[in-house]
Amino acid sequence: MYEIKFARTAIREIRSLPNQVIQRVARKIDQLTENPRPAGCRKLRGHTDLWRIRIGDYWVIYSISDDIEIIEIRRVRHRRDVYD
Questions:
Q1: Residue 44: per-residue pLDDT
Q2: 57 CB contacts (<8 Å, ≥6 apart)?
Q3: pTM, whole model, 2 decimals?
Q4: How is the beta sheet containing 50-55 ordered, strand by strand?
Q5: Over 70: is that where the pLDDT of 82 sits?
């Protein structure tokens, strides 16, 4: 089972989301502990360790360290803003 860690920017971004979205994002992030590469996740081009999952209109960008079983949530942003 993987451990979840959050980057400071991800924490700030999550806190700024509407409450209903926070609940959906939290559930999906919690599910990553059992399956860090769920159906629909994609590896980001140009990055060796970054993955993304879509939750409604939001992307969660995260890295996976399989050897130490840690997932670090890097960004949680609206699709139109995530790559800024």
A1: 92
A2: 78, 79
A3: 0.90
A4: 3-6, 70-78, 58-65, 50-55, 42-43
A5: no
Please report, in angstroms and rounded to a whole number, the separation of the first and last CA atoms in the chain. Answer: 32
Q: Tell me the per-residue pLDDT of 10-40, one tens digit each, with 9 for 90 and over.
A: 999 999 999 999 999 999 999 999 999 999 9
CA distance linking residue 78 with residue 59, whole number of Å: 6
User: Is the CA virtual torsion 35, 1, 68, 6 positive or negative?
Assistant: positive
Looking at the chain, the number of H-run helices and the number of E-run strands are 2, 5
- What does the alpha-carbon distance between residue 23 and residue 76 come to, in Å, rounded to a whole number? 13
DSSP code per residue over 34-73: T-SS-TT-EEPTT-SSEEEEEETTEEEEEEEETTTTEEEE
What is the Cα–Cα distance from 34 to 16, expressed in whole angstroms? 26
pLDDT above 70: residue 72: yes
